[in-house]
Each structure stands twice: as C-alpha cells, then as structure tokens.
Design goal:
This protein is an alpha/beta fold and about 260 residues long.
Length: about 260
Amino acid sequence: MGVVILQERCNRLRALHIPGTPLVLPNAWDAASARAVVAGGFPVVATTSGGVAEALGYEDGERAPAAEMFAAAARIARSVDVPVSVDAESGYGLPPDELVAALLDAGVAGCNLEDTDHKSGGLTQRDRYADRLAAIRRAATAQGYGLVINARVDVFLADYGARPVEHLDEGIARARAYLDAGADCVYPIFLHDERTIAKFVEAAGGPVNILAWQAPPVSRLAEVGVARVSYGSAIQHRLLQDLATILAEIRDYDSAHP
C-alpha cells in the first residue's frame, strides 16, 4: 500500500470519531470476516486480538507471537479498501519505533493499545503509559504516519476488583493523560452503566470508545456523546455457536446440506 493511500485512510479514520455519531465497529479476525464487514456497509474494519489469536491457535493476552499477529493484520489490510484499525494489545513489549514500524508495514490506519501489563498481570502505571503513548506518537510523526491511536483504559476490568463507579476518577485521569499524550480516542473497556459512561464521556475531554457488550443500545450511547462502539470478539463467538449447531445437525440428522 502506498504512503499516500495509507495517510488518506488514517485521515478518514480519525475524521469518523465524532462524539454523538458513533463509529460502529463489528470487529473482524481474518480477511474473510473483514470483507464481510465492508460488504455490510461499514466504513472501517477493526480487528479483535482475541479473535485473531483464536484463529491462529492461541489464547488472547499477547500469547500469540507478535509477528503472527502483525502478519494477520497485514492480510486483513490488503483484503479491503477501507481503513483498518488493529488491536495491538499492549504493543507486545516492542519499543515505540519498532511498534510503529510494524504497524506501518502492516498497512493499518489505526491501533488499539491497552494499559494492561501482560507480563506482570496488572495495570501499567498511568504516567509511564502516557509516556509510552507519547513516544509512539513521536515515532509515528517522524515517519509521516498519521496513526490513529485508540488508548484502552483497563481500570474497569473485573480483574482489578471493585465496581466501575469506584474506578471512575482513576479512569478519567488515565483518559485525560492518554489524550494529552497523543491518543485520538480512549476506550474504557467494560464500562457498561449508562450514567457512568455519560460521566466518563463528559470528563474525558476527547472521543470515547465503548464496548457494546452489556452496554446500552448504540442510539443511547450516541445521546451521551460516545464516538466509537466496538463489538470485540462477540461476533466470532456467535458464529462459532452457529457452527456448533450446524455441525450437530450434520452429525445427528444425516444431513447432506447444512
């Protein structure tokens, strides 16, 4: 993919982050699902690290080799003519310049980067992660690469205990720090309650991404100013459930045709 085309896709992706008019992203995990997303009329393809890892035979959480994950991202980006945003987990421990080079080589317009430290199993310290995001932004800018960074805020994950409302202040502080560091959007994953989402959106100071699972309908998320809605691995899981049903029919009913 040419530099001009990729930059245009970066610009297009960034422009679609409009508070109150959410960019809806049914996440893909391979080239076939990415093409299906585009055929369904969606203007952007976003990947799910869990779905990609499962398709490659690994568990989520940076257990798949980075090279395989970036190769999968490149296949997806080559297969569609719309911007692709890749779930890059925590960046696989790569230094900022190497991470940016890998994303650029894959031909993706954007990425998710989460503040979970997969080696320690905890959260990366807020200022430290903001510094990493700033370094990634500098590295991208140095390459003339308008990478769209969606910074995931993981304080609301159940692994870190307490109810989401009890983490709200820290979540907002992280969101502001990440936006100040150069992120284009922040993603408080597993923040579901409409009232708490509204408070987060109002205080964050930039575009906010919400996971659709257990969240209010997209129309309600739009009303509180959400800019982006993701589906994570939900679609892949639904299709695998449907596949299990088809396989059971073939096994139990001697069906020649699913």
